[in-house]
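[step 3/7] inverse_fold.run input=structure_tokens len=453
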């Protein structure tokens, strides 16, 4: 495995016993002295100012320590090592500890910590590498996760043997999932996923190679024609990014209710794009085992909030039934994402999730519900180069036949897995709707698509 030098800073893995003790000394000094700093009206206490004060305290403590070491005849740390130690303590107190350098790197997309000293990252270009440890021990990694949980919410977030799984959003919007004591060697492990494009557009996705010009205009017309859309693909294939880009085509004054297991969409952050948004997030049970709110319940509640469109960040279970009800009861133009390996298998996934609901729908009833609610399935895959995320397939839902959802593949993957239009596959009445929304049907006439144009 390749270990990147840029992330091998003198950190936890290089700590000897004296350096560990020095870190603890610096942390105690900071805890003792920082609260005594006074705030004036002329100098408000911003996060940047608080960190600057902390640096002053640590530099003073480091200078005093070095003087004592020099008088005792011991070897001093190099200036670079001293500075790095100060940065490490600042990251522990104000940042994300050993994770901070990785999260500060915009090229890092995914961080997988199999244990404190076995850390792997995936970059935005698809490459992977092993990097430096993020803690000196399993206990330190566990404490770091608990600290992050305490900062993430005002609600109690346990992370112990009784609650060994933790799902939370970091300050920068990244998603962290951690487990304690469930791995083969019984250590803490975690994964962090970053959404690199919190705001994007279909035009930007075309420039990045996810779409061609025909797909860009086709998807834009689907949104403007208020078609209900399911976006599918594997983990990390860009489903949420595509959903954001398609949502950017909505009228900014449309009333949108979003439902998520954990906040990731961020549709209400840009008020010029989406002025009227209520974002709802599912909630886990508290330490007494009560207070849980599921996505399924939130979808039902969201329908009482007068939405023009309902958006579910990711369908994971029985919320599929209220979501389909929302799509078929007048909230046209609603969208959701779903993990699926192909556009066709999405219907099987929906049926399996529907079976988990309290309604216990039969396969036939589920197929009818899906066929009456979902208009299109847009599938994302990785192109033949295994790094570029592309729209690979689009299916139009036609009807239900027994327990089967009948669909036409109107865009089909080519040899490089990029979607190409299928001549004559789109129903005439649907094409009329898209033309009314501004779509040029001539864009469907190129059998190889418009990828090279």
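[step 3/7] decode complete -> sequence:
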């Amino acid at each position: 495995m390749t270990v990147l030098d840029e992330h091998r800073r003198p950190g936890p893995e290089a700590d000897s016993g004296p350096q560990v003790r020095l870190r603890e000394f610096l942390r105690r000094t900071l805890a003792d002295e920082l609260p005594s700093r006074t705030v004036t009206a002329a100098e408000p206490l911003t996060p940047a100012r608080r960190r600057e004060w902390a640096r002053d305290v640590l530099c003073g403590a480091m200078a005093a320590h070095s003087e004592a070491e020099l008088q005792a005849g011991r070897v001093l740390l190099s200036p670079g090592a001293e500075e790095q130690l100060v940065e490490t303590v600042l990251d522990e107190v104000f940042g994300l500890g050993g994770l901070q350098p990785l999260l500060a790197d915009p090229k890092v997309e995914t961080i997988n910590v199999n244990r404190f000293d076995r850390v792997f990252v995936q970059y935005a270009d698809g490459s992977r590498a092993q990097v430096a440890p993020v803690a000196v021990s399993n206990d330190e990694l566990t404490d770091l996760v608990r600290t992050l949980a305490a900062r993430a919410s005002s609600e109690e977030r346990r992370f112990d043997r009784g609650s060994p799984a933790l799902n939370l959003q970091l300050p920068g919007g990244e998603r962290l999932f951690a487990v304690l004591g469930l791995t083969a060697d019984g250590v803490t492990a975690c994964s962090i996923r970053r959404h690199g494009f919190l705001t994007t557009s279909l035009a930007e996705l075309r420039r990045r190679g996810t779409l061609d010009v025909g797909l860009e205009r086709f998807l834009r017309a689907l949104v403007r024609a208020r078609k209900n859309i399911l976006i599918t693909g594997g983990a990390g294939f860009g489903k949420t990014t595509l959903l954001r880009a398609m949502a950017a085509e909505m009228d900014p004054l449309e009333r949108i209710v979003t439902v998520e297991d954990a906040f990731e969409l961020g549709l209400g952050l840009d008020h010029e794009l989406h002025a009227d948004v209520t974002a709802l997030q599912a909630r886990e049970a508290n330490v007494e085992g009560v207070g849980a709110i599921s996505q399924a319940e939130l979808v039902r509640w969201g329908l009482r909030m007068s939405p023009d469109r309902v958006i579910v960040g990711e369908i994971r279970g029985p919320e599929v039934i209220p979501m389909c009800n929302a799509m078929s009861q007048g909230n046209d133009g609603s969208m959701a994402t779903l993990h699926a390996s192909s556009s066709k298998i999405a219907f099987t996934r929906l049926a399996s999730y529907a079976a988990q609901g309290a309604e216990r729908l039969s396969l036939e009833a589920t197929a009818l519900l899906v066929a009456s609610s979902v208009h299109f399935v847009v599938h994302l895959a990785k192109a033949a180069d295994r790094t570029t995320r592309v729209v690979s397939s689009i299916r139009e839902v036609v009807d239900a036949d027994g327990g089967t959802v009948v669909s036409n593949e109107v865009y089909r993957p080519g040899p490089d897995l990029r979607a190409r239009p299928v001549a004559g596959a789109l129903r005439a009445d649907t094409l009329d709707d898209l033309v009314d929304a501004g779509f040029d049907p001539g864009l469907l006439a190129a059998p190889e698509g418009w990828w090279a144009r």
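[step 4/7] annotate
The chain has three domains: 1-94, 96-194, 202-444.
DSSP finds 13 helices and 15 strands in the chain.
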